[in-house]
TrEMBL record:
Transmembrane segments: none
Entries under Gene3D superfamilies matching the protein: Hypothetical protein af1432, PAS domain
PAS domain ranges (all copies): 42-85
PROSITE patterns, alphabetized: HD, HD_GYP, PAS
Domain of life: Bacteria
This protein's name: PAS domain S-box-containing protein
Residue ranges occupied by any HD-GYP domain in the UniProt entry: 144-338
One of the GO BP terms on file: regulation of DNA-templated transcription
Domain HD as annotated: residue spans: 166-288
InterPro entries in UniProt: Cyclic_di-GMP/3'3'-cGAMP_PDE, HD/PDEase_dom, HD_domain, HD_GYP_dom, PAS, PAS-like_dom_sf, PAS_fold
Length: 344
């Protein structure tokens, strides 16, 4: 007798038969004939298995049936399968597949997938549990979050190795960028892009001479080299397949100026990708308030300085959202005017 497709009916696994000769004969009669090197180990199979006669009466159940239903096997043998399932396989004795059946378990109903085959005299089949959609989505989201955390940990370890002096700055920029993204109601993919883009925004500095990394004033040749680090950063991450295009854009365009004249491409305004404009605001604020000797502004002074950069270097809308919805530190008119006089 020919075997049924194993993709629809996953009964055949390696293992000893261990005294289940009657079930084996019933399965063979239904077309599930075990080969010498790969026999059916029914009682240890993770799915709930059943063997029925032509009328749909239960002749055999494996141990997993009790785990699925909470019912004693001895109480189920001899009963019609339709008393335990929301449909009757005997109505389609040749075989079939039901993707969304209900098993009447001891403590309520349980959604299951049912596959079965028959030869007119016997039927053999299996049940497997179906997770509720919300539970499955929650499980996948949790796995993705765990992978993202592990990924960020690997990137931080890489930064500590390649740019040990920049790793704390990178973490702060990633955090500020993510908070600004949340205030802008970014979706999960955009949030991940600005977070990873912020974390890796200066990865191109790995190609700069170490002497330039802490130098505040650069000569013309040093400036030319420094201005290449966004371009080099894109080259460094080119083969990092898990980085989205939006994250790559944040790395490449974060030094472009909203009013024009930035680098490396010289684009301006809305031509600058949004993720890059977000990272630019986060980068500017941390450069003003971070531990570097040329920074160390207080938050309010830094906020006033951000206002002075809005429209020239930074997207004014994003500066406004960052100050009011992320920092909650809107400057007073006096502070803005004092800063304007200082830089005039």
């Amino acid at each position: 007798m020919a075997h049924p497709p194993t993709t629809d009916f996953p009964l055949r696994i390696r293992g000893p038969l261990e005294g289940l000769e009657q079930a084996r004969r019933l399965l063979e009669a239904s077309g599930f004939q075990a080969e010498t090197s790969e026999v059916v180990h029914l009682d240890q199979h993770p799915h709930a298995l059943f063997v029925l006669d032509a009328a749909g009466t239960i002749l055999y159940l494996n141990r997993s049936w009790r785990e699925y239903s909470g019912l004693e096997i001895s109480d189920c043998l001899g009963r019609p399968i339709r008393e335990l399932l929301s449909f009757d396989p005997a109505a389609t004795p040749g075989g079939g597949l039901c993707e969304n059946a209900e098993l009447h378990a001891l403590h309520g109903t349980r959604r299951v997938r049912v596959a079965w085959r028959g030869d007119g005299e016997y039927m053999a089949g299996s049940l497997e549990s179906i997770r509720a959609p919300n539970e499955e989505i929650f499980r996948l989201e949790r796995q993705i979050n765990e992978l993202n955390l592990a990924l960020e940990g690997c990137l931080l370890a890489l930064l500590r190795t390649l740019l040990p002096s920049e790793v704390d700055h990178a973490r702060r920029v990633a955090s500020f960028a993510a908070r600004l993204g949340e205030a802008l109601h970014f979706g999960p993919h955009e949030l991940e892009a600005v977070k990873l883009g912020g974390l890796l925004h200066d990865i191109g500095k790995t190609r700069l001479p170490a002497s330039l990394l802490h130098k505040h004033r650069l000569n013309r040749e040093e400036s030319r080299l420094y201005h290449r680090h966004p371009e080099w950063g894109l080259e460094v991450v080119m083969d990092v397949t898990f980085l989205s295009e939006q994250a790559r854009q944040a790395i490449y365009y974060h030094h472009e100026a909203y009013g024009g004249g930035g680098y490396p491409s010289g684009v301006s305004g809305e031509e600058i990708p949004l993720t890059a404009r977000v990272v630019a605001v986060a980068d500017a604020f941390d450069n003003l308030t971070g531990p570097a000797p040329h920074a160390r502004m207080g938050p309010r002074e830094a906020v006033s300085h951000l206002v002075s950069l809005a429209g020239m270097l930074l997207d004014p809308r994003l500066v406004d959202v960052f100050i009011n919805d992320v920092l909650h530190l809107a400057p007073t008119l006096e502070e803005v005017n004092a800063l304007a006089l200082a830089y005039s």
